[in-house]
Amino acid sequence: MSGVLGAAFAYGGDYNPEQWPEDVWRDDVTLMNRAGVNLASVGIFSWARLEPRDGEFDFAWLDEVLGLLHAGGVRVDLATATASPPPWLALKHPEMLPVTEEGVTLSSGSRQAYCPSSPVYRRYAARLVTAIVERYADHPALELWHVGNEYGCHVSHCYCDASAVAFRAWLATRYGTVEALNDAWGTAFWSQRYDSFDEILPPRAAPSFKNPTQLLDFDRFSADELLECYRVEVAVIRASSSVPITTNFMGFFKGADYWAWAREVDVVSDDSYPDPGDPLSPVYGAMQRDLIRSLGGGKPWLLMEQSPSAVNWRERNAAKRPGQMRAWSYQCIGRGADGILFFQWRQAKAGAEKFHAGMVPHAGTDTRVFREVQELGAELADLSATGLLGSRVEARVAVVFDWTSWWAIEQEASPTRLSYVEGVFAWYRALTAVGVTIDFVSPDSDLAPYAVVVAPSLFVATDAQLAALDAYTANGVTLVASFQTGIVDENLHIRLGGYLGALRQTLGVWVEEFAPPTAPDLAATGGGVPAPLALRGDAVGGAGAAKLWGESVRVEGATVSASFDGGVLDGQPAITRNGRGAGTGWYVATLPDDATLARFAAGVIAEAGVATLPRVAGVEFVQRGSATIAINHGSADAALDLLGTDALTGAPGAGLVLAPQGVAVLVREVAAVAP
Hints:
Strand content: 15-25%
Mean pLDDT: 95
Largest sheet: 10 strands, mixed
Number of helices: 17
Number of domains: 3
Shape: globular
Low-confidence stretches: 670-675
CATH class of the largest domain: Alpha Beta
Structural class: alpha/beta
CATH architecture of the largest domain: Alpha-Beta Barrel
CATH superfamily of the largest domain: Glycosidases
Oligomer: single chain
Number of strands: 26
């Protein structure tokens, strides 16, 4: 089976030859061959080297690098080099520099020092891309185009005058008339009425709370402007090249709605840096891999960046434990990746990322990191013959993830501070603890393929989205909606007459009032952490605990499956169940703690008849195609009893013991290597 980039797993990473003397380049290709590298990302931050002066291009060095890689059998993911404009451009056009909400202009000297709305930046970027494409579109090493880099990572919103002009144009397109904007933004409040679009500014620093819909529209606008920067470059490439195009996503990144971005790339790719010092990182990493696979509709994807060991930006930068890089790489493969790449190939000698690990560390090749890089490269080359490459991951359970709700629910003027992603992560932990694989879906996705759909805090929802959720439920889907769902419409207008809107008929309840725990309900921890809320009822196994949130729920047809036990909500519904046509609608008016939520999720999954994967403490299981991947993230050996043969060792799955950070790829029959 063919994968994303051919008949083998892609393996390699960011290669920055411009940081090294030319006599190192040949050694690099030799070492890449030793390590099994077959794909290198080149030129990501090389604008200043490619165009040292305005309009003067120097491609001789890149010609040599690409020629060396091609001769060594290494394919190239060629970047457009627009991620970091050179100092001369900022000096000549300071108006292209980004401006913060407080009015501070950000200077060059770092990276990503440009306003996404700047016509100057876009014009110069398009000129550079044109020159690169004209020179390399037919280069024999070219495998993939890499547009920009981590769009919005440092500047996702700009508040400069150019952004203001672009924002007004965006609003005029969205609303048509200023009267329609006034209605959508609710400008009757606080005397904010506008008489023309010319009066509108970005939501810069202000005396008090800013207009919530203006904030949301600026989030939407800013995400669209980043995407338009990408589209400008893609248009240049597509005019002269049919080579696939990608740009690297950043998992759960707030600044860009990746559901929109995923439609624009040929290959979905991701940068992922879970913290080796965080015990929850393996689960969070799995959640990010599932999101990335889901963004591409289940198609195989590329891990564009991970670290071979430590990074350099955390307060404490933990090194990956022996075997952990391999284990987390197989987590990506198990969850749909057809390529494992790193940042970076050779650990930098100078610059802000010199302490970020590389495949070739500062200490050279006689190191644990390089040996592990070599070993993984050899394994992936052999694994390409197992039938795993190009195969898909199937899921019967989906979690709704919505960037608009993320932007809106975390605004300042809200009932209480909530982290949208933390809430999603709580549900993900509970569902995967039961042994199910998760797809993420947008509120507009086709939900018919799923038996269970969980909507954690779908705060913003259109009438059409709520109607669709109801229709899917009536047709047999089990819908689980959590607190803060269906609160506002797409303009952040409250759904009056009881929260939940049209989901009232789906769930058989409505919400009268929010009651998040506050003083004196806060535990005396010094950090203002809410004391646990007690729950009782069948849905939580008799008794359980919750945190963070509570609501006064009114039942109109649903069955109460768990209630609050004590406190201001004593005896009121906490979890309800409602039959809706052929399906079931659950409502969870709080956030149960991990153990309670896992018990609840287990009951929902069992009732829906969803098959589950094996469960062994500390071991992650995922099914991809006909293979079962097992990864031991625990600190002790784990005994498995699985069907099939481990493609990595040849050992039978029955009685297999995995050491900590150990991996097994269980297949029923290992395919013969093609001649």
